[in-house]
Write a structure and sequence with these properties.
16 strands; globular; about 325 residues; three-stranded antiparallel beta sheet; alpha+beta
């Protein structure tokens, strides 16, 4: 005879005298357990096959490794179209051992638009190549905080192409979070407060940790504070996404400082939820290509005293709405 498993059950009590629970509560605005909505595609969009690429999922809602695309050569129209669809569907794409030159990396990124420069970052082989050289004797900068790139611009970057030139023997991973999933799972009461809200973004908080006034003051006129919606709409997929981050979002317009700080604290913590994330363990020559409109990312600073060297090319974007 086959044993039938019995599900555990809570003890029952006489209905006339239910036990009383002591008063208890968790702090307000906490993060609670329970099933989350994990929707990778826009509602109603069918899952379509890829015919020119192999797309290998790395997470439930975000992240896919792409195989079968040679990034050292110009992309054909069909391959470029499938890569674009994969970017919209998976938000960040990974390519193992691409080993692109800086020029090849720039050429690949130009398939998605004009490249932007950033005078706040160290320059690589060209003005539109940012170089991140960390570990060893280099000063620690621009790591271990969840953020989207350059949201202090009126038109933040559409996306970025990052290549690891030198990888530490252990550590140095990068994580990405799907901010559409983060929005989907907000409580309805929070959605009602943020759906039409706007927030101020400023470059100074994110860079004042590493640069002095003599370096930042000359750039204040070039990068004045800007406002963006707290919840932006993706211009291609139509999905609603949280668009505030720890590095550059200073306050929500129309709220006093305490209320704004509390609400922003709750919103930026949504990127911390593992179900919305993917984590990439780098090898030298790997490429990551992400949609900066739909994601935030976090470079894990756990590899000192070893070196980690990366180069990034960013693609100019549009004004969020």
């Amino acid at each position: 005879m086959t044993a039938v498993p019995v599900s555990p059950s809570l003890p029952s009590f006489p209905s006339a005298a239910p036990p009383a629970l002591r008063a208890a509560r968790v702090p307000a605005d906490g993060m609670y357990e329970g099933r989350r909505t994990l929707r990778r595609l826009p509602e109603g969009r069918p899952e379509l096959p890829y015919t020119h690429l192999d797309v290998v999922p790395q997470g439930r809602v975000i992240g896919a490794e792409i195989r079968g695309a040679d990034l050292t050569r110009p992309l054909g129209p069909a391959v470029r179209e499938e890569l674009h669809r994969a970017l919209l569907e998976w938000k960040v794409l990974f390519f193992r051992a691409a080993h692109l030159t800086s020029d090849q990396q720039r050429d690949f990124a130009r398939n998605w638009g004009e490249l932007e420069t950033n005078p706040l970052l160290a320059r690589g082989s060209a003005d539109d190549v940012a170089r991140f050289e960390k570990g060893g004797n280099a000063a620690p900068t621009f790591e271990n905080v969840w953020h989207a790139d350059v949201t202090f611009r009126e038109r933040p970057a559409l996306g970025a192409v990052l290549q690891l030139r030198e990888v530490p023997p252990v550590g140095g991973d990068t994580m990405w979070a799907d901010m559409a999933a983060a929005y989907d799972n907000l409580p309805d009461a929070i959605k009602a407060r943020v759906d039409d809200a706007v927030a101020v973004h400023d470059f100074i908080p994110g860079f004042a940790r590493f640069y002095g006034p003599e370096q930042l003051a000359p750039l204040q006129d070039e990068f004045p504070p800007v406002t963006h919606p707290v919840v932006r709409t993706h211009p291609e997929t139509g999905r609603r996404m949280l668009f505030v981050n720890t590095s550059f979002t200073t306050h929500i317009v129309g709220m006093d400082r305490a209320e704004s700080d509390r609400l922003l604290g709750f919103l930026v913590r949504q990127a911390h939820v593992p179900e919305y994330q993917v984590r990439w363990r780098w090898r030298a020559g790997d490429i990551a290509f992400w949609d900066n409109r739909a994601t935030q990312h976090y470079a894990v600073d756990d590899y000192a005293p070893h070196r980690r060297v990366a180069e990034r090319v960013a693609i100019s974007g549009d004004r969020p709405y």
